[in-house]
């Protein structure tokens, strides 16, 4: 931050220097000390118009340094520079923020899917509980079916015994008939 | 980051120094931003999180598919239970008949 302060002070001194130097130039314009003027002109090229003329006064030929034309609108250029800097920084940060946005969307979709699955699970749980209750109410009937099955098997045994007895009777009857 | 070259060099105007300084400051700001982003490791972490989410997506879809099948099977079980309910009501008569037969 010290460096920035130094730079700001330098920039301030540069911006103040033309005003101070201009006053000094006006005062020195009437004087014949034109040797000093080139140095001042060299330091404040943005304010003093271009002077490439050579003056000769008293046998001494002097020349002034050719300076670049002043920037037309430094404020606009500075604003443009800062705007573009802001765009660059915004671009740098946009990548990470887009990653976060992507992850946020993925999480939202996943949470929606889990909510649907939760609803389905609740329905299944409710239906299975009803089914369990209904199957519990069917239990006496299932016991009756077991009893019916036992009775049918005992009936079948009785039918087999009857069948065997009737066959024995038939054989004895035929034997007696032959006599 | 701080440049201490504030003294004018031979053959270099103050304006040139100023423009160099502005350029270096701009570069420093951008480099600082990039370093902050790199130091936060947000890119790696977010990328890893996205990859893990993509891996999980297959399991989530499979789970959802299984749950939907389970709900269909539950519905079929309900239909079967209703059919059983209708038919077991005849078993009482059947049992009475068998009891008479076995007497």
Automatic annotation (TrEMBL), chain A:
MF terms in GO: gamma-tubulin binding
A Pfam family matched in the record: BLOC1_2
GO cellular component: BLOC-1 complex; BORC complex; gamma-tubulin complex
GO biological processes: endosomal transport; lysosome localization
InterPro entries, A to Z: BLOC1_su2
Residue numbers spanned by region Disordered: 28-70
Signal peptide positions on this chain: none
Domain of life, per lineage: Eukaryota
Transmembrane intervals: none
Family: Belongs to the BLOC1S2 family.
Name of protein: Biogenesis of lysosome-related organelles complex 1 subunit 2
Source species taxonomy: Eukaryota, Metazoa, Chordata, Craniata, Vertebrata
UniProtKB/TrEMBL annotation, chain B:
Any one GO cellular component localisation term in the record: lysosomal membrane
Residues forming coiled coils: none
Chief location of this protein within or outside the cell: membrane
Cellular location(s): Lysosome membrane
Keywords linked to the UniProt accession: Lysosome, Membrane
Pfam families: BORCS7
Family that this chain belongs to: Belongs to the BORCS7 family.
Name used for this protein in its record: BLOC-1-related complex subunit 7
Source organism of this protein record: Champsocephalus gunnari
